[in-house]
Write a structure and sequence with these properties.
The complex is a heterodimer of chains A (114) and B (111). In chain A, 0% of the residues lie in helices and 54% in strands. With 114 residues, chain A is mainly beta.
């Protein structure tokens, strides 16, 4: 298996633009997580899905952020409009079982908003 | 919700020495404690984990200990090598699938 796949790996955009980050979880994994990592706040859970259904979105910072999982193999995290303080590395992770069990992280998307 | 604290934030050791990173948690219902290693510019990767029915777990040079009464757990790396240099994160989970991560420890192993 190729592991968790994220695209793009780097994104540079101007303030006010819409940004869409994409994730493909490991095949067969039922859980998908979106994290944001910054120096100041560390690793923050934004939202997670179970069987394509959002379970907890309490970490989503504000209405500018939205996430979807239309099927078991694809999820998006959208920021509209983007702001400089959204600059961070965004990780997607997936896990196989309810448990808890190991979460496998993707390579991340480094977002820079100017 | 759960609160995980991690110390120290930075740690430098000489190659061959041991390194210890400590974490505390607040939710007595937490029962799963993974440790992740993140090399510069890379993704976090699991290096070892422990569940609350076990007090200690070892994997070669890495060990984790858990004290449920005191609500703390520690990562021990023996015979450190330069390739151990990375940021290490502890986490706690209470049976759901949500991980609460510590703030990370930047470990530098000096050759």
């Amino acid at each position: 298996d190729a592991g968790v796949i994220q695209s793009p790996r780097h994104e540079v955009t101007e303030m006010g633009q819409e940004v869409t980050l994409r994730c493909k979880p490991i095949s067969g994994h039922d859980y998908l997580f979106w994290y944001r990592q910054t120096m100041m706040r560390g690793l923050e859970l934004l939202i997670y899905f179970n069987n394509n259904v959002p379970i907890d979105d309490s970490g989503m910072p504000e209405d500018r952020f939205s996430a979807k999982m239309p099927n078991a193999s694809f999820s998006t995290l959208k920021i509209q409009p983007s702001e400089p303080r959204d600059s961070a590395v965004y990780f997607c992770a997936s896990s196989l079982l309810a448990g808890p069990y190991e979460q496998y992280f993707g390579p991340g998307t480094r977002l820079t908003v100017t | 919700g759960e609160n995980v604290e991690q110390h120290p934030s930075t740690l430098s050791v000489q190659e061959g020495d041991s390194a210890v990173i400590k974490c505390t948690y607040s939710d007595s219902a937490s029962n799963y404690f993974p440790w992740y290693k993140q090399e510069l510019g890379k993704r976090p990767q699991l290096i070892i984990d422990i569940r609350s029915n076990v007090g200690e777990k070892k994997d070669q040079r890495i060990a984790v200990t858990l004290n449920k009464t005191a609500k703390h757990f520690s990562l021990h790396i023996t015979e450190t090598q330069p390739e151990d240099s990375a940021v290490y994160f502890c986490a706690a989970s209470s049976g759901g699938n949500q991980f609460y991560f510590g703030t990370g420890t930047s470990l530098t192993v000096i050759p």
